[in-house]
Write a structure and sequence with these properties.
The protein has 375 residues and is mainly α. It folds into 2 domains: 128 residues, no CATH class; 225 residues, no CATH class. The chain is 64% helix and 3% strand. Strand 3 and strand 4 form a beta hairpin. Helix 1 runs antiparallel to helix 12, helix 2 crosses helix 7 and helix 11 packs antiparallel against helix 12. The protein is globular, with a radius of gyration of 21 Å. The two termini are 27 Å apart. The N terminus is likely disordered.
């Protein structure tokens, strides 16, 4: 496989995840969202629940090729790169959580988040693949997933995989403090402080990266494209089936990032990656992919920018209407432009699509001038 071809499929998969992240994160109204564009309420997996683990899978594949310059060894240079990247991505995540900073109550600032999990999962996975024998990565991954299952089973309550009885909740409360957790979950009308990107549940997310790394290693070791595709599909089917079956004992659950969820989603990521390699490299159908390439070459920058924009539209642009109600920039756009065009439900979807196109345009300008912002 030629380097440029291989990375094109990878960039497209990365770009697809970023575009879908923006789509599901910015509906016109959370009251009007098509079910596939929502996360599962607790157990289960919707198309939206695939996006984040797919991105971590991509991080792992990319990590394999980026570490080639260090000969996949842990040394001063590679350790410095890992440390810098972990700190930078984590700090950007904190910045997004606190933006706009002058309006934030830091005593209740959420510490974890999507970028923070990416940073930690990348960092721990990088240390494992560089410090350990690569032949043992699959064994290390298995132990991590089994150990996490044991932790939740042993240290959880009577219902160890429930919202209020899981060990992740008690661990994160003890380490981070309840006031610094995400507060978007509800049970029996009561708001629960539980972080779906918390510290303890970051442990199994490391394996999502490791499986991506193994996929990158497979691509490097196998020069025959069709053989790569076949092996990715075989492993993908095995992982998906294993995760699904395991889910009967250890439920597939994104907020807890259960071990079954790791296998189930990584398997599907491998299958989609194989499909993209087949379409782009084997069949040569590349023009359609240019849209996602724009997202794929500046992924974290575009994602962070979309987060800043969403916060600004909600918190900075707001005013009182004639009846004394608070109107935000996002609600005004939705109600005044998109609802009249397409109604509540389709208007909400159209609002999200418009944001995807808006950030694609920004990404296209960067791509056109060959500006690649590495994070």
């Amino acid at each position: 496989m030629k380097k440029t071809e291989r990375f094109l499929a990878l960039d497209i998969l990365r770009g697809m995840t970023i575009a879908f992240m923006i789509l599901v994160n910015t509906p016109g109204s959370w009251q009007y969202v098509y079910p596939p564009l929502l996360h599962a309420e607790w157990h289960g997996c919707t198309p939206t629940d695939l996006v984040f683990p797919f991105f971590l899978f991509v991080v792992g594949v990319s990590m394999f090729f980026s570490f080639s310059k260090y000969e996949h060894g842990l040394n001063k240079q590679s350790l410095l790169k890992i440390t810098r990247r972990v700190i930078l991505i984590f700090v950007i995540g904190l910045f997004l959580n606190s933006f706009p900073q002058w309006m934030t109550n830091f005593s209740e600032l959420r510490i974890m988040g999507v970028l923070q999990r990416i940073a930690l999962a990348y960092g721990f996975a990088a240390i494992i693949v560089l410090a350990a024998n690569r032949k043992w990565i699959i064994i290390h991954s298995a132990w991590i997933l089994l150990a996490y299952w044991g932790i939740l089973w042993i240290f959880g309550g009577n219902d160890p995989y429930s919202l209020t009885g899981n060990a992740v909740l008690s661990f994160d409360k003890a380490i981070l403090g309840e006031s610094h957790l995400y507060k978007g979950f509800m049970e029996n009308g009561v708001r629960i402080a539980f972080d779906p990107e918390g510290l303890l549940s970051t442990i199994p997310s490391v394996v999502s990266v490791l499986i991506g790394y193994l996929a990158g290693m497979l691509i490097k070791q196998q020069s025959n494209k069709m053989q790569v595709i076949r092996q990715l599909i075989i492993y993908g089917v095995i992982f998906t089936a294993a995760g699904y079956i395991w889910g009967f004992a250890f439920p597939i659950n994104k907020p807890l990032w259960t071990s079954s969820y790791v296998l189930y989603t990584a398997g599907q990521a491998a299958i989609l990656f194989a499909l993209l390699i087949f379409i782009i490299d084997v069949k040569g159908y590349k023009k359609w992919s240019n849209f996602f390439l724009v997202f794929g070459v500046n992924p974290l920058f575009i994602y962070a920018l979309s987060g800043i924009w969403a916060n600004a539209m909600w918190m900075l642009f707001r005013w009182e209407d004639a009846e004394g109600n608070i109107v935000t920039g996002s609600s005004w756009l939705y109600n005044q432009i998109f609802v009249p065009l397409a109604g509540n439900l389709n208007g909400s979807l159209l609002y999200a699509i418009a944001h995807v196109l808006f950030f694609w345009l920004i990404g296209y300008i960067l791509y056109r001038y060959r500006i690649f912002i590495k994070v």
